[in-house]
Design brief:
homodimer, 268 residues, alpha/beta, 5 strands, Isoamyl acetate-hydrolyzing esterase 1 homolog (chains A, B)
């Protein structure tokens, strides 16, 4: 960590505010815009040291909240059941972006891990159901980002499985099929999709992206962050920087600046 | 970042759930419990690489949301005006912890930085007002943590000031007075207080805790995290781990497990 100048972000925010005077100013916590990260363990761990959820939160401070909804081990069959509890209609109106990041568990082999396995065809249908639900509460496809499952380092993951008294329960080639299915559903719905399985393997040293063959190392988290951040920043670029900069506060009568802000919210 | 086994946290959560069957299960996003970080730039930057806000989010995944409400350059005079907009009565019922971390700007020298300066006596009164407001919306003092301002490395901060065309506008000894005042208000209200100004300077190499004399380096962020995390974890220890573990989901009839969860919420 180093002291990063915040000027660039601030200037950009000022321009945004100036250009979009009518933008909705959100002051109460419940009304801060939200980027929801919905996925499995790779999402649940996205606030670990140097990881991609924390990076988004850092880049989007004073603009919106990054809400982590990662559920270790979950597949799309289960995610479909809980999504309406995760994003209800009331919350949906504050959601600027949703990332959908499932597949690593769906792709578990039926004969080795029947608990998590979801057949390929059902995986596709479940992803479509997630999209249909989000649409039904007003979250349009331009606010959705699919993240397809990453490749699997079978050798390292087998070691992790054996440590847990299990056997190798996933294959890289099978995860590849799920990755392609995910991108297909995204294409059909004109949804942005980050194809990690393909993108990561273009790096000849791709196995360094994982700490146990399946979950990200810091390099892997940064790889995703490099792909994801530009998309999220673009989709949130209309959001204002919340509350005045400190040197814009009227020090002699701070209520005039800060209550104006409050008033702007109440009018809307 | 390395692959951390999640077992310890999970076992703890399981015990918590077993011991507190009547605990409120929260499923909808709006009802997830919240830890609110309210402060100035040191809070605003708390999700930078390796910083203390991200660390809390990582440790409390699946239990509650860490909501960052840091406002660079703000002092207690301004924070008092905006707090009711940051935590309204409705949100307050979901708040498990609030950290209050102001003073670095209040302690700016009147003659060098009249914009940010707040007199010592008013600083104390403002902190008391923040507590009184939180109490008025039902947030009791055991849920509040004060973080007193850290020491200032005048030499490095002077360099930063000169780079911005300014002059040295804070003094370490003056910040020390604000730190003592903060701890005094905390004591009077029986509120936990982390006395960074004193604690950090017990380390003979304390200047490494800052990247520009005022804002934290990674070492400084970790120093705070080491003090703060145990307090926050204790104050959130009653919160359940949200949603069943993946191997507890009934794979043949997942609705039975996941809808039960939903039902448990709706009953309350």
């Amino acid at each position: 960590m180093h002291c990063r100048p915040m000027y660039k972000a601030l200037i950009r925010s000022f321009i945004t505010l100036t250009c979009f005077q009518s933008v909705r100013l959100m002051a109460a916590t419940n009304a801060w815009s939200k980027v929801v990260l919905f996925g499995d363990s790779i999402t649940q761990r996205s606030f670990d040291d140097g990881s991609w959820g924390a990076s988004l939160a850092s880049q989007l401070q004073r603009k919106c909240d990054i809400v982590c909804r990662g559920f270790s081990g979950y597949n799309t069959r289960w995610s479909k059941i809980i999504l309406p509890q995760i994003i209800d209609k009331q919350m949906a109106s504050d959601v600027s972006v949703v990332t959908i990041f499932f597949g690593a568990n769906d792709a578990a082999l039926l004969e080795k891990d029947p608990q998590q396995h979801v057949p390929l065809e059902e995986y596709e249908q479940n992803l479509q159901s997630l999209v249909d639900y989000l649409n039904s509460v007003g979250i349009t496809n331009d606010k959705i980002i699919f993240i397809a499952p990453p490749p699997l380092d079978e050798l390292e993951w087998e070691k992790a499985c054996i440590l847990k008294g299990s056997v190798l329960n996933r294959k890289n080639s099978v995860t590849g099929e799920y990755s392609r299915a995910c991108c297909k559903v995204a294409d059909r719905n004109k949804i942005d999709c980050i194809g990690l399985w393909t993108d990561m393997q273009q790096d000849k040293d791709w196995k360094r992206f994982f700490c146990d063959g399946l979950h990200f190392s810091e390099d892997g988290a940064r790889f995703l962050d490099d792909k994801l951040s530009p998309l999220v920043l673009e989709k949130t670029s209309h959001l204002p920087f919340l509350y005045p900069l400190w040197d814009e506060v009227d020090a002699k009568n701070p209520e005039s600046t800060l209550d104006n802000y409050k008033a702007a919210k109440e009018e809307l």
